[in-house]
Amino acid sequence: MKKYLIETDNLTKKFDGFAAVNSINLKIPQGGIYGFLGPNGAGKSTTIRMLLGLISPTEGKAKLFDKSIDKDRLDILKKVGSMVENPSYYAHLTAYENLNIIREILNVEKSEIERVLNIVGLLEVKDKKVKKFSMGMKQRLGIAQALIGNPELLILDEPTNGLDPAGIREIRALIKGLPEKLGITVVVSSHILSEIELMATDVGIINKGNLIFQGSLEELQKRSLAQIKIGAEPKKEAIDHLLKRGYQVEERDKYIYIKEFSSPSILTKELVINNFEVYHISEDKSNLEDIFLDITRKENQDEITNIN
Amino acid sequence: MKLPILIKTELSKQRRGFIWLMILGIPLGTTMAMFLDMYIRYHDYLYVKGQELGFTSWDILLRENHRVLGWGIFLPLFIAVIATIIHYTEFEEDNWKKLLTLPVRRWEVYISKLITIVIFSFIMIALNSLGLVLVGKVIGFPEAINYRLYGEYILYQYVAILGVVALHNFLSSHTKNVIIPVVIGFLGIIVAPGVLSKNPDLAKLIPYTYTYYINNLNVGNSSIALYGGIISMILISVVGILSFNKKDIL
Amino acid sequence: MFNNLKIEFMKIKRSNIFLVATFFPILAVIQGFSFAKNIKGQEEIDLWGALFSGSTLMYGMLILPIFITIIFAIITRIEHSNNGWKQLLSLPIRREDVYISKLILGCIAVLYNLVVFLIGILISGIILGGKGSIPLDIIVLRPLLAFISSLPIIAIQFYISFKFKNVGVPLGVGAIFTLPTILIANSTKYWIFYPWTYPVLTMMPNFVTSAEQTLRYGIMYGVSILSFISIIGVGLYKFRSKDII
Questions:
Q1: Which run of H or E residues covers position C63?
Q2: Digit-coded pLDDT (tens) for B32-41
Q3: Which one, A50, A72, C46, C113, has the greatest CB density within 10 A?
Q4: B176 touching A (Cβ < 8 Å)
Q5: Complex ipTM over 0.95
Q6: How far is C145 from chain B (nearest CA, A)?
Q7: Any chain B CB within 8 A of the CB of C168?
Q8: Structural domain count, chain B
């Protein structure tokens, strides 16, 4: 039985009757990177706030480290570092002073401050007032604040927000290394799907308050709409031929797309034997974004059908 | 018990902050105002009047500060502004969501803010009285400094304002809008004298009136200031903690 | 310009300032009302005068200056708090228009406050059944004159509210300048140097009557108008060239 670090039981949050988070059952395994995906306004931040005890659920429960957040809040938070939405800071204080405040509350050594500043690349500006920081620097500071004290669980809300490509790569590499090097479990929420695809081991997709998918990244990718992309001449006749053979065919740009899992070699043979020229054949695996859009589109369609 | 650490961090958050200007500048202002007042009126008028009524110069100076200048009236308003500043530090940039995901009990955070407001208020009050002593010496009062009088004055103020401190800690913790607690404080100091004269029993329930009872010079019952301050602080803080614990940080 | 004014008005619509502006002068009137009521039984009293002076004391010394402090803090807070300056000032509107429309809005609020005050006095006086004709010259004219003499306070508070991002600054400064007003207003020699005494002394000139004082009153109006123009002018100049980071 896989051990889940975070488990929620029908976790719900309603605002004036509107369910921002609707009965979700998160199962976040220990030791991996969990990508929490969803469009803006889907309920990611609200869920995270409930996990951290910032807001109380309307119904349901949230458990971290096998403890309930409303009963054992202190024990849980001792092991969690977080950054919710945009980074928080005291503008008129320096980066060092900001981190020092957290350090003192956590009661860890002073050396922690420089350690985390180094990790996020802000060591040089430690004595600069945060109000003078660029957006990317503030973002890094937020991550540093979450890292201080070496938590077992890291919850990061849109951590690459505002960073330039080099920065994004650095933070991604940092996050990816955490489970291996330090045994830290990371929960990353985002709406940038390519980022999640490159980092996550497990994924949960939330849309309009509902958890519509939860599983490993591989499971999600398997759902992918793999297609075979064929370039054949003469095109129109080739399409007719394939249709007669019972394939689902779509025509896009100059190519022919077969919309289900088929064997490329069988298709090639089929066409060549019938005197078609095949000049291109490839397997087109759609990326996470397409899968995501597909899943959420289906959700919305179901909703519309239900309404009708 | 993280309370001492929290208080320490609260103070460090105010480093290079505007609040120091306030708690130093206000007593400076009152000292100068009292100096001018004494310079102009003491020798010709106040000293003579005092002799008639049997007051020492130090008594008169205190009365001028508390009643004529209006220190006793305005003190709650200054405290409202102090409380606003202490909490505004957190509301700016959404710092509550960081602070309350650290392993600290919510009530400790709440009380640490309360104590911080108390500390700054105490400094301001003490400096105001110190300023008075300075004025008296510079003007050259004939009588020796009456330490007991001024010591009592400071201590009575300390206890009397506890109710206002607790109330504004509560108000400022609940709303990001800084104007509301200030308007309420303003309302309090305006309404206070009216209620005192019309309905003295009701006045005992309003924290804004307690500074009026501080008077080693006859008017009013000073013990009301003490009891009122302590009891209102405890009651309001209990309600405040319960409410703060349940609050959603959005 | 009118458009700007409308926009500014919309911004503060939800900030309850209307309630505050209406409520506070009424508090002062209530004070005056109970004062006048208490002495009503006695003969030979000037009921209107008592009502007026009973209310004016608290209004002129405390309520009006603090209200000015609060209203300008609110008007500028909207942009300060949400980093709104960079949005507002990159729209195709002239900076002068923004500045002046905020000033005008605040002045309208102050005038409104004064008008509520004088209407309140009128109504209270009628309820109390004051004898003789209503001394309109006192009740209507003086508050309106007080608007002019409160121009220095308006200018200073406006300037400080604009300049400092931290809303505690104008609130703290406004509170502390209001504090010594009671003391200084009592001094016949030095009041002229302290603008916070101007409103209350405009409304209650029975403090002193002499040729010298009349001269001072003239000076007061002059100072009010001149200081207003210069402070607002300097503020506008600085605002026009300010870097919005």
A1: none
A2: 989 988 888 8
A3: A50
A4: no
A5: no
A6: 24
A7: yes
A8: 1
